[in-house]
Amino acid sequence: MLNGKKIVVVLPAYNAEKTLAATYKEIPMDIVDEIVLVDDASDDRTVEIARKLGIAHIIKHQRNKGYGGNQKTCYHKALEVGADIVIMLHPDYQYTPKLIPSMAYLIANGVYPAVLGSRILGRGALKGGMPLYKYIANRFLTLFQNYIIGEKLSEYHSGYRAFSSEVLKKINFDANSDDFVFDNQMLSQIFMAGYPVAEVTCPTKYFSEASSINFSRSVKYGFGVLKTSLVHRLYKWKLNRSKIYILKN
Predict the structure, then answer these.
(1) Domains of the chain listed by start with CATH number
(2) What torsion do the CA atoms of 243, 175, 192, 187 make, to the nearest 10 degrees?
(3) 150-179 pLDDT per residue, tens
């Protein structure tokens, strides 16, 4: 715990047998209360390894629900076990778990309700192995989103995120896509609900075992991001009534 707040780390996993142990070993269990791993119908030993590591909450999807679908299960389970702060960490070891205390601190002390680990702030994305085309796409999409949405993030595409339970209970993340654009829709919802978002510098590591979507999926994601931004702007102009922005009671 931090400042009396229960911290739950959620791991949306898919074929993570080669990196799960390394990720888990760096999670600071002195402040993290519980870990939730959701396996999205992997065909490797991810669940077996999770059990050997002693992860308390393991859920296995019988069919692949997609990256967004996996996160939906993660967040519902985290709230079910009483999380005050939920940190979403990819178990592919691309993001360092050592930033969990910094991200959780901002939420536990009421500074920000949501925090992103940014690969761009420290200018280390390319040094960490991010493919050039992904870096260029990241910069273009972020510039477009900041202009259309009216915010000033260094990037919208990090998969390293922390949320207060208040945010997760308020936004309608179940209405989002089950695909990769889920992440972008969540940020759009958070901003639309009036919550500010903080960023902390996060080193990145690209290597063969780390998960990464291919070029065609990246293109699909990019168009989804553009659409999300335009839907956000049209909703603010009251020209669109997208259900993703309807807040929960």
Answers:
(1) 7-245 (3.90.550.10)
(2) -150
(3) 999 999 999 999 999 999 999 999 999 999
